């Protein structure tokens, strides 16, 4: 029996071969492989840390340029399309996207770590919380924003699939459907796989620590197997219910509980102190993030190790998660203007992270100093326990600990579920076709198996090296993505602001125009119109361009069979007319319609243009093409 699949087989096979090769090497000679991967990690830290910094800063300036320029008025979709989601729902989903199991634990651990081991002796607490906010806010979301904007723009504006390869259409044209497109998806899939399993491996360690803290500890291997197996089963069940059911329900529940926990800590903790630090943290962040965003610590070599193991590792991690967040954010952003999109993506999650790290970070530093007498610092390396111990020093700790534990479980499940969905999305060929459920199970089994293997060999840190290896070329790919996006936007902007003259409407014979607009055409009439008007106009224009100006012109037509078309090419510009069947009404009658299809996917009806009007339309759009190149 043939198994139905929507996989893009070359992408899936090559990606899995790469992943299997690396995992196989680690299994075959774990010590040597881990040593090699750690060396690769150190090499990238030493030689390419500047690249992560400058590309990340460039993304922020590029997005700011779009917001402040007229490009910000362009919609992610057709000009007349309205947003599919209300502003409130869209903000809520962005807010949900910003959360994750990492920030649940690191909200306490990271600021506390920076305060105990400060990089600067000045304003230690303020610097500690600022470093955490800096790593999780605008700089991180600029990476997600660029890839999400590219996917959404080309997906909704050009009607291309919501995929990574679509982002390079202005540069590669139809080649995105070939091997070059497959290479882009392979890199994106491998980057996502290793970013996901590294995150899951670290999260699983913290989850096990949470089980231990909640006194759910049985034995090392048994606990690991139970946790991984249970999460796998639950995530698969949720994933097979489709995004609109499973992921949405779990995400919304996680969002409500995280907001509740944050407000709970604010109320039972040092409330006035936390509100004051929140205000100052915003001001200090706005005052410092540009300077720090371009800082490589080249003049402070004593801080290079800290810089690489915190900032650069974070930037690499965010790049490895960029395809996942990019596809998700793009899917929910149809109908938004670019300005609205960029401001929402950069500001909504960032404001949340400022609040989260203020309440949990400043709160943990305060508790450690005034209530715990430094005991939180003693378990700083036990990130999974630290959150619960911190809550123990606050009122109603039993209640808040249970909420936190449920939240950790939900976010772990959401991470697996979200990762499975994104891996399947990248790996399928036709994004409009619903994948069979066995593919969800397949990807769930892959990431669960790899995560389990990492526990057996203790290779979690080595996976950071693998993640860095794939994130580095993906940084370069995203830099090209910005160029491609700008080229598409430039064409779009020129097309929007070119004077849309149409000589057909300058005639005084308006009755004739009404007749043209309302006339219905059957296949015979359309073919007659194509041969007598379209072909005549194109031949006349070709003769003029070749004979008088020596321009290279190519005319191609096929008026037989089901796929009828005419193509008029001037160098790399093409003007394509397809004769398409479209339903006229509810009776089921069909007619043949003629339309044009020029570069960048624009399509408009030219059914009733006269010969001179058609020539004018070709030249007008060729003029737009020349203006944008």
TrEMBL record:
Q: Does the keyword Transport apply?
A: yes
Q: Where in the cell is it found?
A: Cell membrane
Q: Which InterPro entries match?
A: BCCT_transptr
- What membrane topology is annotated for this entry? Multi-pass membrane protein
Keywords, comma-separated and alphabetical: Cell membrane, Membrane, Transmembrane, Transmembrane helix, Transport
Which one of the record's GO molecular function terms can you name? transmembrane transporter activity
**Per UniProt, what is one Pfam family of this protein?**
BCCT
Gene Ontology CC annotation, any one:
plasma membrane
Residues spanning the membrane = 7-28, 48-69, 90-113, 133-156, 183-202, 222-241, 253-275, 312-330, 342-367, 403-428, 440-460, 466-486
Claim: Membrane is one of the keywords in the record: yes
Q: Which PANTHER family match?
A: HIGH-AFFINITY CHOLINE TRANSPORT PROTEIN (PTHR30047:SF7), HIGH-AFFINITY CHOLINE TRANSPORT PROTEIN-RELATED (PTHR30047)
Family per record: Belongs to the BCCT transporter (TC 2.A.15) family.
Protein's name according to its UniProt entry: BCCT family transporter
Q: Which organism is it from?
A: Actinobacillus indolicus
């Amino acid at each position: 029996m043939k198994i139905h699949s929507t996989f893009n087989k070359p992408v899936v096979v090559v990606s899995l071969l790469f992943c299997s090769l690396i995992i196989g090497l680690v299994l075959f000679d774990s010590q040597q492989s881990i040593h090699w991967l750690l060396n690769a990690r150190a090499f990238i830290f030493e030689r390419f840390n500047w690249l992560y910094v400058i590309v990340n800063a460039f993304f922020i300036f590029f997005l700011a340029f779009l917001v402040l320029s007229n490009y910000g008025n362009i919609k992610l979709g057709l000009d007349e399309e309205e947003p599919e989601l209300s502003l409130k729902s869209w903000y809520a989903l962005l807010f949900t996207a910003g959360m994750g199991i990492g920030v649940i634990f690191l909200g306490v651990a990271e600021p506390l770590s920076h305060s105990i081991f400060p990089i600067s002796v000045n304003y230690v607490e303020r610097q500690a919380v600022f470093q955490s906010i800096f790593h999780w806010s605008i700089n991180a979301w600029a990476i997600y924003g660029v890839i999400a904007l590219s996917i959404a723009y080309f997906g909704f504006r050009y009607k291309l699939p919501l995929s990574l390869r679509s982002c390079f259409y202005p540069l590669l044209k139809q080649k995105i459907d070939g091997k070059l497109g497959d290479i882009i998806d392979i890199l994106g899939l491998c980057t996502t796989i290793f970013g996901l399993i590294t995150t899951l491996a670290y999260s699983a360690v913290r989850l096990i620590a949470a089980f231990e803290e909640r006194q759910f500890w049985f034995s090392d291997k048994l606990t690991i197997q139970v946790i991984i197996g249970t999460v796998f089963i639950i995530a698969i069940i949720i994933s097979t219910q489709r995004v609109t059911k499973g992921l949405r329900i779990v995400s919304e529940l996680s969002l409500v509980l995280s907001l509740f926990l944050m407000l709970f800590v604010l109320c039972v903790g040092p409330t006035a102190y936390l509100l004051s630090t929140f205000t100052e943290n915003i001001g200090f962040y706005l005052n410092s993030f540009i300077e720090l965003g371009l800082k490589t610590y080249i003049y402070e070599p004593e801080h290079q190790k800290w810089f690489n193991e915190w900032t650069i590792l974070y930037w690499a991690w965010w790049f490895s998660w960029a395809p996942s967040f990019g596809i998700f954010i793009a899917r929910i952003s149809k109908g938004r203007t670019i300005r609205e999109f960029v401001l929402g993506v950069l500001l909504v999650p960032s404001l949340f992270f400022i609040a989260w790290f203020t309440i949990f970070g400043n709160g943990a530093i305060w508790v450690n100093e005034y209530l715990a007498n430094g005991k939180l610092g003693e378990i700083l390396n036990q990130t999974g326990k630290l959150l619960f111990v911190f809550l123990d020093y606050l009122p109603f700790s039993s209640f808040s600990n249970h909420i936190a534990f449920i939240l950790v479980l939900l976010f772990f499940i959401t991470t697996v579920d979200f990762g499975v969905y994104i891996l399947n999305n990248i790996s399928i060929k036709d994004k409009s076709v619903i994948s069979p459920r066995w593919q969800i199970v397949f990807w769930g089994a892959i990431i669960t198996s790899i995560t389990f293997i990492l526990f057996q060999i203790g290779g979690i840190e080595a996976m950071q090296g693998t993640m860095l290896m794939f994130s580095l070329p993906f940084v370069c790919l995203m830099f090209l993505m910005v160029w491609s996006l700008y080229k598409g936007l430039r064409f779009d902007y020129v097309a929007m602001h070119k004077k849309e003259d149409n000589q057909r409407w300058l005639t005084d014979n308006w009755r004739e125009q009404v007749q043209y607009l309302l006339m219905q055409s059957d296949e015979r009439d359309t073919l007659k119109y194509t041969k007598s008007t379209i072909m005549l106009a194109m031949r006349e224009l070709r003769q003029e361009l070749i004979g008088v100006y020596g321009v290279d012109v190519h005319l191609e037509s096929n008026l037989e069979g089901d796929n009828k078309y005419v193509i008029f090419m001037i160098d790399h510009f093409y003007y394509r007319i397809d004769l398409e069947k479209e339903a006229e009404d509810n009776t089921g009658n069909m007619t043949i319609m003629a339309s044009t299809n020029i570069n960048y996917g624009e399509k408009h009806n030219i059914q009733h243009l006269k010969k001179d009007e058609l020539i004018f339309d070709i030249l007008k759009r060729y003029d737009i093409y020349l203006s944008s190149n």
